[in-house]
Design brief:
single chain; about 190 residues; mainly alpha; Arc Repressor Mutant, subunit A; 2 domains; 8 helices; about 0% strand
Length: about 190
């Protein structure tokens, strides 16, 4: 006979965690991590991106749940954060596709040398701008560009994989925002 796992009352766990139970807090974050990852992977085809989104959502929840008054329930609030992050991801992904299409068009209209120089200039400008606001973003983007694995980046920067994924996602978002603000790849 199969034994089913006991149903976890997420709202009760959140209540106990917000009242100081570190055991409940760990159990809550572990449960959310597993269930959110399954939810995100169903909606995003890229497992790495799904993991990054979940890590980002968990960091938001971790920093805000103790001080938040929930309209419906903790679980509804937490899933709403996840759904919004997934919608933002999909929106950014469609913007990236548009930027890639524009870059292809721009490269076909002008010589490759001019387009490459223009792209390189914009990327360097944006990387400097991102680095001037957050040096860790520039550093993690540079290490990622150089081909270091996540584990190697974590070791070099002295951080956990979860923090690394979150930082890398935010750094990429800042770089993309800068490129979009400066007119993309044109």
């Amino acid at each position: 006979m199969l034994h089913s796992r006991p149903k976890i009352d997420v709202n009760d766990l959140a209540f106990r965690a917000s009242n100081g139970s570190s055991e409940s807090e760990k159990e809550l974050m572990d449960h959310l991590s597993v269930s959110f990852l399954a939810f995100a992977q169903q909606r995003i085809c890229n497992d790495h991106d799904a993991e990054e989104i979940v890590q980002d959502v968990l960091s938001v929840i971790w920093s805000k749940y103790r001080d938040t008054v929930f309209e419906k329930s903790f679980q509804a609030w937490a899933y709403q954060i996840l759904k919004h992050k997934i919608m933002d991801y999909n929106k950014k992904r469609s913007n990236r596709r548009r930027l890639m299409a524009e870059s292809t068009e721009a490269m076909s209209e002008s010589s490759d040398t001019v387009a490459d120089a223009n792209l390189r200039t914009r990327l360097l400008e944006c990387l400097r701008a991102v680095g001037s606001t957050n040096n860790r973003y520039a550093r993690i983007l540079n290490l990622n560009y150089q081909g270091y694995s996540t584990g190697e980046i974590c070791e070099r920067l002295g951080m956990t994989k979860g923090n690394c994924y979150t930082l890398l996602m935010r750094a990429r978002g800042a770089l993309l925002h800068c490129l979009e603000k400066k007119g993309g790849w044109k």
